[in-house]
Amino acid sequence: MTGIISAFVGGSYGLPTITLTLSATTTNYNLFTAAGSPTEAKNVILNINSGVTVGGTGSSTALTVGQFPTGSTITINNSGNIDGFGGAAGTSGVGGNGGDAINANYANQTVVINNNSGANIRGGGGGGGKGGAGGTGGQGQTKTYGNPGADGPTCNAGCNNGGFSFCETGHCLPQKSGVACASGWCYNLTTTSGGAGGAAGNGGAGQGYSQSQSNGLSGSAGAAGGTNAGTGGTGGTGGNGGTFGNSGTAGATGSTGANGNAGSGVAGSSGSTFGTAGRYLVKGSNSVTLNNNGTVAGGLA
């Protein structure tokens, strides 16, 4: 970063002028601090050269104007890029919000921003939300039959005495073909659990300073259930991260687990919500003018 500071009396406001020029990429730039934290009103000019990027990192705005003394005028001539940070991928839930490019929300000063042809002022893209987990498969059951001769030919007496819990009456069972029909077939029930739902896919990262946009990952397949039980549902795909100035997308809901012969599969979990895009400019109701001949991306607040 190169700071060229000159002070003289002149300009339409008759204020001492401070001129700063950025000729190398920098991050989390505070114009008030860079200008020496003046205590009297100044006319401040910031030139950002072509090919130079002012980027935001962590949770910081890329370029913060700061609170100058009352009556100050600030002019930003951007021929490069002012980019907010990209939102974090949703790896444990909600996608992260993208960062703002310029914060000029300060009172009692006049700010003019000239975004020149080919230049960019862009809020960071929001991160994609994590997908939802797949649902558990439905329960299964298996009948184990006894012999009517050995385990009792009647339901009421024989089944309990033979160590069985249930009796099925009124028909011969196909699996007992060739054996004489009895008044009841004794049987036990074995219950098996449905398969666990698959893990959810992570969301993608939002585009921002020094961070590329990425799409969400697919969820994992559910596990197989026990005998006659349903397979778990597939986990939902994570949401995509947003490009500059765009929010991410929500993660997909996980699939419902398959039904077993003794119970229905459980619905998958909902995916997590997305991160919102950063703003290209935050100015509130203050005196801020943007003359845009380049590209802006994101919201205005």
Description:
With 301 residues, the chain is mostly beta strands. It has 3 helices and 19 strands. Helices cover 5% and strands 26% of the residues. Among the domains are: 9-129 and 277-300; 140-192, no CATH class. It starts with 8 loop residues before the first strand and ends with a strand. It is rod-shaped. Strand 1 (9-10) and strand 2 (15-22) form a beta hairpin. Mean pLDDT is 89; it is low at 1-12, 149-154 and 174-179. It has a 6-stranded mixed β-sheet with strand order 1-2-5-8-11-17, with no helix packed on it.
Question: Strand order within the widest sheet?
Answer: 1-2-5-8-11-17
Helical stretch tally: 3
The global form is rod-shaped
Oligomer designation: single chain
Largest sheet: 6 strands, mixed
Spatial gap, N to C terminus: 29 Å
Residue stretches low in confidence (pLDDT < 50, at least 5 long) are 1-12, 149-154, 174-179
Helix share, percent: under 10%
What key phrases describe this protein's structure?
301 residues; mainly beta; six-stranded mixed β-sheet; five-stranded parallel β-sheet; 19 strands
Short description:
With 301 residues, the chain is mainly beta.
